[in-house]
Write a structure and sequence with these properties.
Layout: H1 2-13, E1 20-22, H2 27-41, E2 56-60, H3 66-72, E3 79-83, H4 86-92, E4 100-103, H5 106-113, E5 118-122, H6 131-139, E6 145-149, E7 152-154, E8 159-166, E9 180-187, H7 190-198, E10 210-214, E11 217-219
Parallel strand pairs: 1-9, 2-3, 2-5, 3-4, 5-6, 6-10, 7-11
Antiparallel strand pairs: 8-9
Helix pairs in contact: 2-4, 6-7
């Protein structure tokens, strides 16, 4: 499926867009992710053995909870709190269960989850309005493990710009669409990103954190 998605999106990028929609709360984008998630849940889901020892996870920007369903195959009793935009959280409630809940704030997720064993975030931080505050709040939860994937950072200060993607690139799985999505992206400096993660002030229990950083990317405005 990943290979098919990669090849399909590469072909779609060569074609002129049929339309450009704006923002992550656009109803069409939200509906697409919901439908893609439903379709994927009808198929076998790859297990996630790295989540075997976690009992509670806060998933920042976790869409319709597809990561929960992967983790559940390895840890059936895991409790999973997804923090999303109001539009996505509302539509995603149809996927809720005793182990999976959706929230529009980190504080709301923490109230239900308690102190999580892990914080997980994939490709979300840079698309929020205030990544620095969200980063500090996530580090302040006291989780013993933090897993960051697809974080886009800068090397030369805070950089705000516009970015576009194929509509088909959003959400799990692949669907053919020539539409594109445009949204704001805020890249914070690497030093700003690493500072709260590496300090003991964000971990009250004085537990040494396990930090996983995967597929980080860097953007240099001066090189454009």
């Amino acid at each position: 499926m990943r290979i098919l998605k990669k090849i399909g999106n590469r072909i779609l990028w060569q074609l002129p867009p049929s339309e450009t929609i704006t923002g992550y709360e656009n109803p069409e984008l939200v509906d697409l992710i919901v439908q893609k998630t439903k379709r994927l849940l009808d198929q076998p889901i790859a297990p996630w053995p790295e989540m075997a020892n976690f009992r509670s996870v806060l998933d920042f920007g976790g869409s319709c909870g597809i990561h929960y369903f992967r983790a559940k195959s390895t840890s059936p009793e895991v409790r999973w709190a997804v923090v999303e935009t109001p539009a996505m959280a509302e539509r995603a409630k149809q996927f809720e269960s005793d182990g999976l809940k959706f929230f529009t704030s980190i504080a709301g997720a923490q109230n239900w989850l308690g102190e999580p064993d892990a914080v997980f975030s994939e490709g979300a931080l840079q698309f929020t309005q205030d990544p620095e505050t969200h980063l500090a709040d996530l580090c302040g939860l006291g989780a013993s493990s933090m897993i960051w994937q697809r974080v886009s950072l800068s090397r030369n200060g805070r950089q705000v710009s516009r970015q576009s993607s194929l509509l088909s690139e959003n959400g799990p799985g692949f669907i053919v669409s020539r539409k594109r999505v445009e949204y704001q992206i805020i890249r914070i400096p690497e030093s700003v990103f690493l500072q709260p993660i590496g300090t003991t002030t964000c971990c009250p229990r004085k537990v040494r954190k396990t930090i996983v950083l995967a597929r980080l990317s860097y953007f240099d405005e001066s090189a454009r």
